TrEMBL record:
<protein>
    <submittedName>
        <fullName>Glycosyltransferase</fullName>
    </submittedName>
</protein>
<dbReference type="InterPro" id="IPR028098">
    <property type="entry name" value="Glyco_trans_4-like_N"/>
</dbReference>
<dbReference type="Pfam" id="PF13439">
    <property type="entry name" value="Glyco_transf_4"/>
</dbReference>
<dbReference type="GO" id="GO:0016757">
    <property type="term" value="F:glycosyltransferase activity"/>
</dbReference>
<dbReference type="Pfam" id="PF13692">
    <property type="entry name" value="Glyco_trans_1_4"/>
</dbReference>
<keyword id="KW-0808">Transferase</keyword>
<feature type="domain" description="Glycosyltransferase subfamily 4-like N-terminal">
    <location>
        <begin position="20"/>
        <end position="182"/>
    </location>
</feature>
Length: 418
């Protein structure tokens, strides 16, 4: 009688299933790993819903994160005990966690299973890690706990030296597996037609587009200043695809600059070419707003391996990004390393343009001027737009699901054999 090989049991943990790049990556990994393993997804709670459902088994630990410090500490312990019990019930072979809060719970509930952490962004440069709790995370929890993992996957190569020098993680535990993109699917969706009103906007002037959450990390406010300066030289329009907690701050700033603003969430306003800046909000298909644009602008203060940037490249757009930690340089100029001092001028990479970060008050005016002049030059050069867009699309063939998922399969097999 033939012996049937049992599939390895993989448990995947994330704090929540809300909107976000990490949640999207978690979903993609979960679906792909389920082709080879028995995958169970776990989440702290479902208070924010499930924005990226899959067909895998889903278990909620049903522990919230709200309350006083004492309550949060009790809930932290409840998460650990409930996850430990879940691992025992499932007889998990591997437990993979995404995002820092899940990493701690995963490590502190460790049993017989192997532990893999997936680090989605820079820890040293994350401005949200601040105050006493930020100090605890950076100075105590990460240095004390991360070396307990069997492997730590970083989505960008430049996160590895941060973990080694900043948190004492042992180099042999670290490896980089970039995020993957459903390239063919994104390309197909990008060809969905715009409405007549949207087409009129796109036909009126060159379109600069950016996509992503309206948050501190994405640093869109300086982009509005840059765009206002650009309008003194060239006709253009700026399109935001996405929403977030800074929507009111950003629309107010745009109006203070004298820009005419369309915001999808405000009182019904007819969409016409008469505006300068368009906040389109969340879109089920953001890609159709990328492909017909003239260029993609990405002003982030820090990243991991940015999905929005990669999606714009798949859509064949020339891209201009801050040289922020981490990800853009690896995507746009992979043969280079980060300079010892921040960029002060535009750098033409193999697959796109790297520009100064927009976070330093002392150099902000000069850095914005570099952005404005670079954008003006690109808008005046259709041949360069075409060249960079073609190269960007070619680069993204390195990050297809097939290429990247095989690295995860290899990793799971390796840790299980140790």
């Amino acid at each position: 009688m033939l012996q049937v090989e049992m599939k390895k049991k993989v448990l995947m943990l994330i704090p929540n299933f809300g909107l976000g790049g990490a949640q999207r990556v978690f979903h993609d990994h979960s679906v792909e790993l389920a082709r080879h393993y028995q995958v169970t997804e776990a989440v702290f709670n479902l208070d924010g819903g499930n924005m990226y459902p899959s067909s895998n088994e889903l278990v909620s630990l049903e522990v919230t994160g709200d309350g006083s410090p004492a309550t949060k500490l009790r809930n932290f312990w409840r998460r650990i005990t409930r996850l430990k019990a879940l691992k025992q019930r499932l007889h998990s072979d591997v437990s993979i966690s995404h995002l820092e809060g899940a990493d701690y719970v995963n490590l502190l509930s460790k049993g017989r299973e192997k532990i893999i952490l997936c680090i989605h962004g820079s820890k040293l440069h994350d401005a949200n890690i601040k105050g006493p709790v930020g100090w605890l995370r950076k100075s105590v929890l990460m240095p004390a706990l991360y070396n307990r993992a069997d492997r730590i996957v970083t989505v960008s190569r430049d996160i590895i030296p941060e973990l080694v020098t900043g948190f004492g993680v042992k180099p042999h535990k670290l490896l980089t597996i970039n995020n993957f993109f459903e390239v063919a699917q994104i390309e197909a969706k990008s060809h969905e037609p715009l409405s007549a009103a949207e087409l009129a906007v796109y036909a009126a002037a060159p379109i600069l587009v950016t996509s992503g959450r309206l948050t501190l990390q994405k640093n869109q406010a300086p982009l509005l200043d840059i765009f206002a300066a650009l309008l003194q030289k060239k006709a253009a329009k700026l399109v935001f695809v996405g929403d977030g907690e800074l929507r009111e701050v950003l629309t107010a700033h745009a109006r203070q600059l004298g820009l005419r603003v369309y915001a999808a969430w405000e009182e019904p306003t007819l969409l016409t070419p008469d505006f300068d800046v368009y906040f389109l909000g969340l879109q089920q298909n953001p890609f159709k707003y990328l492909r017909p644009a003239t260029a993609f602008v990405f002003p982030s203060a820090w990243e991991g391996f940015p999905m929005a940037l990669g999606e714009a490249m798949i859509c064949g757009l020339p891209v201009l990004s801050t040289d922020c930690p981490t990800g853009p340089r690896e995507m746009l100029a992979p043969a280079t390393v980060a300079p010892p001092t921040p960029l002060r001028q535009a750098e033409l990479g193999a697959y796109g343009l790297l520009l100064p970060m927009l976070t330093q008050a002392a150099t902000l005016a000069a850095d914005q001027a570099v952005w404005a002049s670079t954008l003006a030059a690109l808008l005046a050069d259709k041949a360069e737009q075409q060249r960079l867009g073609t190269l960007a699309r070619e680069r993204m063939q390195d990050f297809t699901r097939e290429r990247i998922s095989s690295q995860w399969i290899k990793l799971v097999e390796e840790v299980c054999s140790e």
